[in-house]
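Quick one: structure for this chain?
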Amino acid sequence: MQKFLTVLRWTVGILFILSGLIKANDPLGLSYKMDEFLNVWSISLISDRITMYFAVFMNILEIVAGLALIIKYPYKQTLWLLLSLIVFFSFLTGYALFSGKIKTCGCFGDCIPLSPKTSFIKDILLFLSIVILLITKKKVKSKMKKSIGIALLLLTTFTVGYGQFYVLNHLPIIDCLPYKVGNDIVEKMKLPAGAVPDSVDIKMEFLKDGKTYFYSPANLPDDFDESYVFKGRKDFIIKGNGIKAEIVDFYLRAVSGVDSTKTVFANKAPYALIFADQIDGGKPWNEILKKAKLKYSKVYIVITKEVENATKTFPSENILTCDNTILRTVARVWPTVYVMNGSVIMQKQSYIDFLKD
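Got it. Here's what it folds into:
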């Protein structure tokens, strides 16, 4: 029994630590996932920073709680904390599964994407495991000295907190996004082998003898005549197999609205794309642009808002626009500098590292 409880305790602890570490590598990604849930529930916050701070806190909590379970200090309180967390996570994954409104729950970030079904089953198994550990808690004795236990948990809290502060300023240490160095954006936009996209089946609605019939234009019945009264057209969505391209709907548009993606990717010599939400005075834009122009044949600024302000601030620069959803995936730090060769990503740096390099 003791061996079983030890294995169970370590398994639960390691899973929580692993889950927290993967998400701590990219806390902004977890923040965006939280925003997705809040948007589905029509809940609006004053600032996106609230979800970011909450994401940082949750990652620390998962890792520290997982470690506390392994070292068995404080054991009883940790089990109740883990039970509360897993009930909360089960609610989220259950909602994602049964509502169909959330495609992935973000339990293991973008590095290990899990379907809502897999995530929900995982959480149910973890819930049962924690319940077993709670029921048998009196059979587990902690030999950890209080001072050492507190020191370990405080050190872990500081390390994970600092690590998340670092990646929020320097990009994730492990890049699990489709826009990582070495990837060809054009190739990643192609459907993989075996993919069957959604399609639309157009049918016409007719009324005859009080009954409704649907026929496609090329498949009318043999007895079709004026007795069939046309009522309208219906579009029926035929679901594909769910396999999609890694990158969907990437584009770069000129300020005029013209799609400039192919034109930009036609550059042969290495060039720079600088992604940010807007041109703001808090960032060293002049230094970034000066250094980029010295190193690369062309430099493009890609933003999502305040375009008119950008053109006034830098009237002689190549300014492009993209969707905010694209920006959130392309750049976890604003601005982020991409060095491109055609559509291939050669280098990717936060503006802080770019200026230091």
